[in-house]
Amino acid sequence: MKIAKECYPDNDHIFVYDNATTHLKCADAALSACKMPKNPSQTWGVDVNKLHPNGKQVYTNDGKFVKTKIRMGNGTFNGSPQSFYFPKGHEKAGWLKGMTRILEEHGFANASSLKAQCKDFKC
Hints:
Blueprint: H1 2-7, E1 46-49, E2 67-70, E3 75-77, E4 80-82, H2 99-104
Antiparallel strand pairs: 1-2, 3-4
């Protein structure tokens, strides 16, 4: 790097970068709005690698992981638990509420008019 050579011209320089993607790993059911739909969904879930009852990963015939969907874990807001799924007895029981409904539950009345994602994440 230019600055290292200018500031320390008589030294050898070695730069080590650790860009391991494992540093980004969260629990499979961890809260994440990245792919959460804006509106309620009966079929949405977090894609995870399927495990055999013996604990080993399941593969397709061509060697790829078999995926399955699981529910995202519930969250908390101001210390109170919050379910991201409609409760038993609701007409959409078991469905994911979606970002709009979750935000509305916390006082964001205009949530339905907000963008769920801006082009290239440039909001």
